[in-house]
Design brief:
The chain is an alpha/beta fold. It has ten helices and 15 strands. It binds arginine. The site of arginine has 16 residues, from loops.
Length: 294
Amino acid sequence: MPSKPVMLLTDPAHFEVSYTINPWMAPGAWAADPAGHRAAARRSFRALAAALRAAGARLEVMPGVAGLPDMVFPANAAVVLDGAVLVARFRHPERQGEEQHFKDQFRALMRRGFFDEVAQFPARCFQEGAGDCIWDARRGRFWAGYGQRSTRQAADEVAAFFGQEVTALELVSPRFYHLDVCFCPLGGGEILYYPPAFSPAALAAIRDSVAPHELIEATDEDAQRFNVNAVNIDDRVVMASASPRLVARLAERGYRVDEVDLRPFILSGGAAYCMTLRLDRRSSAAGALRRAAG
Ligand code: ARG
């Protein structure tokens, strides 16, 4: 039996929408009923945690911090592979305070044996974690988004630090500002993606590496519902409420979709994938050795 996937989540007690750093964020809508939204966020979080556990994940839930509401999106905190953690550098001052709290958390997890190294991207090299740098287990490489939050240079930092191939993809739409809202590699090799989010060169790079029958195009509606921001474990795909058509398209490919009502978090521009951070990802043995050889 392979070991269970391990994921970091952040308790939503301090979640709110109090500023706007992406076009989805609606502080006005939140302010109309903060207690109602907060209660709904707790319910959504519990439903997400239950769906992830049912799909086979083991969860590490860390506390949030007052005044840092977007800590509920730990995917943005780091890139993690082969027991090594590369901590993010957030572009917006509103989120920069998260870096220290996540570093403390990763060091605590290192003491518990989860990792053997915690480093950070160089100063001023903006990079927003696994939200913009997604491991493709089937192809044994990272895909890195840049041009909105993360910089192009960050892709080279990832390649050097982890000793892995990285394909950099330019993101051109402020609405699809992290790679994880428009690009989702699945375990069987398919990639669910939203083409309008990418530059022509990025689309060419995707089509160079991925066979046409493995590409699943998300519709405008799928992208707006944050369905591309999905967590895949084996044949399960956990995502925000989806259209029956998307559920059927994934079922044809052998995936079972578990839908969770994540509307409170979509008010901040995030959903299932970015509310999690995989801690246990391993590359092939060869990749790990390359890294060890430095
Ligand atoms: N409000 C957060 C931000 O704009 C949402 C982050 C969602 N994360 C993600 N990886 N898509 O930074």
